Amino acid sequence: MVGATQKNEFDSFVAVKKHEEYFLTGGDLFFLVDHVSFSVHRYFFERESLFFRSKLTSPVSPGSSVQGSSESTAIILDNVKPHEFAKFLWVFYNPKFSIYHAPVEDWTIILKLAHRWKFPEVKELAVRELELLAEPDIDRICTYHECDVDRNLLIPRYAALCEREDPLTVPEGFRLGMETVLMIARARESARGNLTPSGIRSPTAAHIEEDEMSGLIRHVFGIPSPAGLGGIGSPV
To answer: Which residues form a coiled coil (predicted)?
Structure first.
């Protein structure tokens, strides 16, 4: 459905469509994402998000409308696609109460948006659900780095990269960044330097016990003990 028009940089008009699922009749907060209009409940954004709470509760000058209070004053969200924002809204409007079944790709989108917009509870939920799903170590590490997720959750991922026979590839190194690559190389070298039970220096880190490897990773990466830290998904 056509709800309005918006002028773009080329002075032409682009139709603004109402989102099929998340333009709610009782919505009192309006967003515009790539010419798609959303009408949702302000309550969730004001209660859950430090970012939006500040935006929505800021005083306005006399005669001005509160941003997001109507379609004409909709909050424009950049660097997000309509389908991504819809996935994020699903967290609040999931018809199956407390049951959240979604693939890794969806939870990754939700995590990144929750981190960007400062939704701590949604971020914690996304991390908790991701921890239940399989994903390549490099992908998970990059996502958690980007979203400042508790590094204790990365210890098994770092360990897997140290224990595998093949070193990091160049593309993997570019994705991880120089600092992480150097730390993994250092941990691999330290693990390879330990003696096997037979007294032979091992060419791999596969012989090291899990607790020993975890301790080595903590030491090399400077990850403190989880004692006294916040819950799952807490930023470092």
So the answer is: none
